[in-house]
């Protein structure tokens, strides 16, 4: 059997058949890139030990278009996204599983580039991809490649975070500037060229989270403002905790090129997706310590306290604007940016 | 906000936006069907305890076409498939995650039917769906619905199974008749009508596995013959263990209507996918006890010892035919049935 033609070859239906060709694709492309002791087990599942503690599990299907973008690609994004979902519980992500849905005709060279990017992201994060699955659908029944990653992790003792724990008086912290990911993708799709000065912020935040929960185990909730952006994620948390929120626009960091691109595109950066930022809510007494901890980490250098949790039976999120007025920051209504992750 | 129109509504791009509409879809359709304490946590991940022991993780993307078939649908299949992948390690499946990729325009009524079928399969198996994700792609970029399920489970103490543990002299057992799933799907696709007397064998095999590993902890390997069928799965195991296999055709159970349909369709039942059968390999000394244990379980009533592991550096799988000849049972070459799971 000839080796897979990774230069000019394409995904064929037979690569999803369970037979010889699928075995070859897994061996020469996936296993070659992800290589680790668990995949070497060669079974339809992986076995591993977990440290004692409550287990956390998260799953995310990735359908981003385009597949490649400044700052990453669907491969690295699928690793970062799921690591972050596990980490937002306060947990340490330990293992990943990956399911691929490939479209017939997709270039193997692109698939290899994506898989190698996943492997690099997984190695950099120290979270191995230990099991996986590959399916192929006919041309026109998919869109190149979709990747579903699932992560498991373990909670450090004494940490308990949940979206329903915010209390009036708590402070709301943001780890850095918003809008980069969404603006990059939209600019690329519309061939606007902003992406030459902006890139996705896609990154794995678990080491930042580990530092935060170690320094301030009293943190109430963590969440990453992905689809729907900061505005939508804060509304989710407000609703879940049965509280309101009062934000300060001047404290919310937005980089200048992102602000300019948003103005040009008619987007509100509050609603634009991020893939490497987090929101933290903690009691007022620990807010300064948490802020200092975040700023001491490279991923939290631009962290800021952006607002306060308030009593509000209507669970409204409001914001004092740059000009001193007050505006409602409502849920995302309708569709701002499809297929952003 | 009006309730979701589950009768005439369709999936829209906005259902994947992360905003209000997605929240509604999750609440009124997914959470309503899956309802459990973990989903009620309302976070982007689930937290749970696992019993002590080695952890097993498996993931499977499901792209079957058509979505509904006699004996199940993509929803029940996606629960059974992943439960079985976890169980084939000898493990007890504990929790499932589910990622949905929906195509714009897909009828919400069909989605609800699928989700309720998943919920029923999960409840029947006692393995809850504790976390999930929903994405939407444009019309023509998907195919109705794809579901990726990931399962975690725990190994009972003292059990160690792997595809590389088969040894010459071991016996090969099969839990029941083969070919039903693949023949059902193909007949349905080609509108041949065989599916009126045949249905998919899709079922969760974890209670059968639990009985087997309890009675015979010496089992070497378990695997479910899905894509590529019995022939391909046995070749995988032979290769992984570095052994040959000698099968007896007369011992391999194939139901009469399946045999007839295979003849009509030009299919070899050995290569046709199953979704509710397993292969077990165990030392000869335990083979009769294992067979009796399997036959005492409703899912193993038709179990049989179908062959013997032999020494063979070429790792060939061979079979004594009904007529006393000997034939090679090679790997699946090419594509027999696309999108069977």
TrEMBL record, chains A, B:
Protein species of origin: Azomonas macrocytogenes
Gene Ontology process terms (BP): protein maturation
CDD domains associated with the record: HypE
Superkingdom, natural source: Bacteria
Stretches assigned to the PurM-like C-terminal domain: 167-317
Protein name in the entry: Hydrogenase expression/formation protein HypE
Organism ancestry: Bacteria, Pseudomonadati, Pseudomonadota, Gammaproteobacteria, Pseudomonadales
Family: Belongs to the HypE family.
Domain PurM-like N-terminal: 43-155
InterPro entries: HypE, PurM-like_C_dom, PurM-like_C_sf, PurM-like_N, PurM-like_N_sf
UniProt-listed PANTHER family: CARBAMOYL DEHYDRATASE HYPE, HYDROGENASE ISOENZYMES FORMATION PROTEIN HYPE
Record-linked Gene3D superfamilies: PurM-like C-terminal domain (3.90.650.10), PurM-like, N-terminal domain (3.30.1330.10)
Pfam families in UniProt: AIRS (PF00586), AIRS_C (PF02769)
């Amino acid at each position: 059997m000839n080796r897979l033609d990774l230069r000019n070859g394409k995904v064929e239906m037979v690569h999803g058949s369970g037979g010889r060709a699928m075995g070859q694709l897994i061996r020469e492309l996936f296993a070659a890139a992800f290589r680790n002791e668990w995949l070497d087990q060669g079974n339809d599942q992986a076995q591993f030990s977990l440290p004692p503690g409550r287990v956390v599990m998260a799953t995310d299907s990735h359908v981003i278009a385009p597949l490649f973008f400044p700052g990453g690609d669907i491969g690295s994004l699928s690793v970062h996204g799921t690591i972050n979902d596990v980490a937002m519980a306060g947990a340490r992500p330990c293992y990943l599983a990956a399911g691929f849905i490939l479209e017939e005709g997709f270039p193997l060279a692109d698939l290899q580039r994506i898989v190698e990017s996943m492997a690099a992201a997984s190695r950099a994060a120290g979270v191995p991809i230990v099991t996986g699955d590959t399916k192929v659908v006919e041309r026109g029944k998919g869109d190149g490649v979709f990747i579903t990653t699932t992560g498991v992790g373990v909670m450090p003792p004494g940490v308990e975070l949940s979206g329903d724990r915010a209390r009036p008086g708590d402070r709301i912290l943001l780890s850095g500037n918003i809008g980069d990911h969404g603006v990059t993708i939209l600019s690329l799709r519309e061939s606007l060229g902003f992406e030459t000065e902006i890139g996705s912020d896609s990154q794995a935040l678990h080491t930042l989270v580990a530092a935060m929960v170690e320094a301030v185990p009293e943190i109430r909730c963590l969440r990453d403002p992905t689809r729907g952006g900061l505005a939508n994620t804060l509304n989710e948390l407000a609703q879940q905790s049965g509280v309101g929120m009062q934000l300060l626009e001047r404290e919310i960091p937005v980089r200048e090129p992102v602000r300019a691109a948003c103005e040009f595109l008619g987007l509100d950066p509050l609603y634009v997706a991020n893939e490497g930022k987090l929101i933290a809510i903690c009691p007022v007494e620990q807010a300064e310590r948490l802020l200092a901890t975040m700023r001491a980490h490279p991923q939290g250098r631009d962290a800021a306290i952006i607002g306060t949790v308030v009593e509000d039976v209507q669970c409204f999120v409001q914001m004092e604007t740059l000009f001193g007025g007050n505006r409602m920051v409502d849920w995302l209504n309708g569709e701002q940016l499809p297929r952003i992750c």
